[in-house]
Write a structure and sequence with these properties.
By secondary structure, this protein is α+β, with helices and mostly antiparallel strands. It has 12 helices and 12 strands. The strands form 3 sheets. The protein has a 6-stranded antiparallel beta sheet. Strands 1-2-4 form a 3-stranded mixed beta sheet, with no helix packed on it. Strands 7-6-9 form a 3-stranded antiparallel beta sheet, with no helix packed on it.
Length: 307
């Protein structure tokens, strides 16, 4: 069993001096490192780091997982990949009563597979997975069971064979990328979603630049040379959302980011993010996040401040 300790320090920026930045033990001479532990409770604060992270937790039903602006209570098994640089995350005790929780954390550099290698055909699925995991990626049980034996013994491997086993884990997980769920909203994570369609890319770019303004279906359809009906079906097929839901999610993501990073009032954030009615903003936010904007801000900040 390999156990590593990490250092933490506050990140200094203009908006928030209480974000915890983890200094991982990953050496420039190592491809990755593994931290495996059995624990009785989760005490590590919400944090971020530059390295990619694959985190597996077993027998921890009731733990709350926070990735960006996503907050979920997990079951007995949880496997998440995070490739978003500085995307805040934490697993906290919440309602977990287990006394023998197993956690395996693998951290590795974004340059593990450099650009000339990751773009090869044989690694296309891994590249797609890394891109999707910028928002945090939660794998289904089928994927967990597929790689469980390799995760179970990775910490005991050494040298070249450990590296090959880790690459195999990444590849096998990448085969389930379509079933895996993205967690944090893109606007909160400051990530632009990647779509294959040039028409969707054009609309996406416009919405990201003009989400504070009214975004009309007819206007977007005209922009890409389609009828409103055809565009509506096309957009839903390619993004999985209606245009109105997509715009709302973008606005809520930006609002969540501002609730965490700024001292602006909730009313100011409401109007700054394109909502023209405070009560409507509160209602939609609660529907999307299962808490009010005020509760979100208080909860998130409480988890960040440890000094």
């Amino acid at each position: 069993m390999l156990i590593f300790a990490a250092k933490i320090k506050p990140m200094n920026n203009a908006t928030n001096t209480h974000i915890i930045h983890e200094i991982t033990p990953l050496s420039d001479k190592d491809c990755f490192y593994v931290a495996e532990r059995v624990k009785t409770e989760f005490t590590y604060p919400i944090h971020s780091h530059e390295e990619y992270e694959l985190n597996f937790i077993e027998k921890a039903a009731g733990v709350r997982r926070v990735i960006g602006d996503s907050s979920e209570v997990i079951g007995d098994f949880d496997l998440v990949l995070i490739t978003g640089r500085e995307l805040e995350h934490v697993w906290e005790q919440h309602e977990c009563q287990a006394s023998q929780v197993r956690e395996i954390t693998i951290q590795f550099s974004s340059q593990l597979l450099n650009e000339s290698l990751i773009n090869k055909n044989q690694l296309e699925s891994i590249q797609k997975m890394f891109t999707k995991a910028q928002n945090g990626l939660c794998f289904p049980m089928r994927a967990i069971m597929k790689v469980y034996d390799k995760l179970d013994t990775l910490a005991q491997e050494q040298g070249f064979y450990a590296f090959i086993k880790f690459l195999t884990i990444l590849y096998e997980l990448s085969l389930y990328v379509e079933e895996a769920r993205t967690l944090s909203s893109s606007s909160f994570a400051k990530i632009e979603p990647v779509f294959d369609s040039r028409r969707i890319q054009k609309v996406q770019k416009y919405i990201n630049a003009n989400y504070k303004e009214e975004v009309r279906l007819e206007q977007m359809a005209e922009m890409v040379g389609m009828t409103s009906t055809s565009f509506s079906r096309f957009f839903k097929l390619r993004t999985g959302k209606t245009l109105s839901d997509y715009v709302i999610d973008i606005r809520i993501g930006y609002a969540s980011r501002m609730l965490v990073d700024s001292t602006m009032s909730i009313a100011e954030i409401c109007y700054e993010c394109g909502f023209n009615n405070l009560s409507n903003f509160n209602r939609i936010f609660k529907k999307k996040k299962n808490c009010s904007p005020k509760e979100f801000r208080e909860y998130y900040r409480k988890k960040k401040i440890i000094f």
